[in-house]
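S1.2 Input.
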Amino acid sequence: MSFTKVTEQDSNHNDLEKKSVKELVEAMHEEDNNALNAIQKVLPEITNLIEDIAPKMKSGGRLFYIGAGTSGAKGEIHRVDPTAAGGKGIEGTEFASYRRQL
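S1.3 Output.
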């Protein structure tokens, strides 16, 4: 019986268990730089998006976070009233631990 991967892609970093610590650290650094370089290419679009969203948020608009991973956790953090816990933001609330983990 053959098996076709439908949710996974080939990795740029196969056989991680065979790599030295130095090679692993260099690979992680390379991937971090790849993400930063990708963001650098779309900074004007990100800037435009923020400039479009900010006035709408100030006038009562809402922002929806979609995701169950980090984006979901950030959504939980940002939904807490910034005046919660006596003006200390999320500190002292059940969501404070999320912020420390991000």
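S1.4 Remarks. The chain is about 55% helix and 0% strand.
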